[in-house]
Amino acid sequence: MKHTIIALVENEPGVLNRISSLFRRRGFNIESLTVCRTESPDYSRMTLVVDTSDTDAEQVQKQLAKIINVVDVQDVTHEPIVVRDAVLVKIKADAAARADVMTIAEIFNAKVVDVSPEELIIEAVGYESRVDAFLEMLKPKGIIEITRTGRIAMPRCGTPVRAMNNA
Amino acid sequence: MKHTIIALVENEPGVLNRISSLFRRRGFNIESLTVCRTESPDYSRMTLVVDTSDTDAEQVQKQLAKIINVVDVQDVTHEPIVVRDAVLVKIKADAAARADVMTIAEIFNAKVVDVSPEELIIEAVGYESRVDAFLEMLKPKGIIEITRTGRIAMPRCGTPVRAMNNA
After folding, report:
1. Cβ atoms < 10 Å from Cβ of B110
2. Partners of residue B165 in chain A, C-beta under 8 Å
3. Residue B35 distance to chain A (closest CA, Å)
4. B49 by DSSP, 3-state: which?
5. CA distances (Å), B9 to each of A91, B85, B163, in order?
6. A103 CA to chain B: closest CA distance, Å?
7. Which parts of A2-98 are beta strand (E)?
8. Nearest neighbour of B24 by CB, restricted to A14, A148, A163
9. DSSP readout, B56-110?
10. Of A16, A88, A133, B140, whose Cβ has the fewest other Cβ atoms within 10 Å?
11. Side-chain-side CA neighbours of residue A148 (13 Å)
12. Do B66 and B23 touch, CB atoms closer than 8 A?
């Protein structure tokens, strides 16, 4: 099953390399990965999605926690979390097809962000399954290019915050 | 300056490790990184943001292109692109503070996605500078946690598509 792992890491060159080495050694393919700065300039937060068993995910979590510059690791797969995935999709849409594509976009609360005589770029944000459903609806129209952020995840309101306080 | 590099890579374990090794060797800190599947199940698309000189960025691009499983690399920093950054932010907001936070959210077209008696989670999507401005406005209210996707980028409509066709 897909495991969502959040790691808080110090902003040091080489930390991504140590983490990706671990995944390579274990032969796990990372389904998606986002790394970005956080509320503190000294730390980055990673959201990793790995398709693996519960036992293997537990091993990965333990190994990650041992890596230098990794401050905190949580497998939030079975926790109450908010998840989001953002996508930019470029699609074929001439004047005749445009209205139809825009209706689909509207249903999914997606937003047209660029247009040319033959193409549209649409931005969609939401749960991955909803983003997937949106892309599925667009497929017959002719998808030119997709760029996705991959999953970001955050424990729901009211759940205890670990992270920097423990650092 | 901040360079935005898009790389199309084959979905093979180890490719992320080879790329992060290159950045470690050169001592570059990756400002943000997203990796996710694309319109083809065989490929992932990475968006990398690296703060470096034009000369160094050109070197990085050349080195990346030489890596096995890397199909295409473009430095799109000076190209016409659409960029997006998504953020989830958890903020202190009791009943008294909630209306004020929600007004700020509305101005930035941000969306409340979770609530508890003392907290809110808000989703915002847009250009990084706008997301930054939103977070700056929220700071005095008490930010608990931030998770960002980092930048995704796509060449504007009407620009020639490289990517898979060349693979």
Report:
1. 22
2. none
3. 5
4. strand
5. 21, 21, 10
6. 19
7. 2-10, 30-37, 43-51, 70-75, 81-92
8. A14
9. HHHHHHHHHHHSTTEEEEEE-TTS-EEEEEEEEEEEE--HHHHHHHHHHHHHTT-
10. B140
11. 24
12. no
**N- to C-terminal Cα separation, chain A:** 30
Cα–Cα distance, A126 to A134 (Å, whole number):
10
Instruction: Report how far residue B55's alpha carbon sits from residue B74's, in angstroms, rounded to the nearest whole number.
Output: 14
A86-95, A115-124, B10-19, B71-80: range with lowest mean pLDDT: B10-19
Domains of chain A and any CATH numbers:
2-79 (3.30.70.260), 82-152 (3.30.70.1150)
A78 interfacial to chain B (CB closer than 8 Å): no
A128, B119 contact by CB (below 8 A): no
**Each residue of A10-29: pLDDT tens digit?**
988 788 899 999 988 888 87
* pLDDT, tens digit, 9 for 90 and up, residues A15-65: 889 999 998 888 887 889 999 888 888 999 999 999 899 999 999 999 999
Q: Which of A121, A125, A157 sits opposite B86 (nearest CB)?
A: A125
Report whether A20 contacts A11 (CB < 8 A).
no
Interface of B with A in 8-27 (CB under 8 A): 11-14, 16-17, 19-21, 23-24, 27
**Token pair for A100:** 């139809």
| DSSP code, position A128 | H
Q: How far is residue B48's CA from residue B32's CA, in Å, rounded to a whole number?
A: 6
Question: Which residues lie closer than 8 Å to B1 by C-beta, 6 or more apart?
Answer: B51, B52, B53, B54, B77
Q: Which one, of A103, A167, A124, A35, lies nearest residue B123 by Cα?
A: A124
- Residue at token pair 């689909």: A104
Of A32, A85, A35, A147, the closest CA to residue B155 belongs to A147
Q: Which helix (H) or strand (E) element contains residue B119? A: strand B119-126
Whole-complex ipTM: 0.89
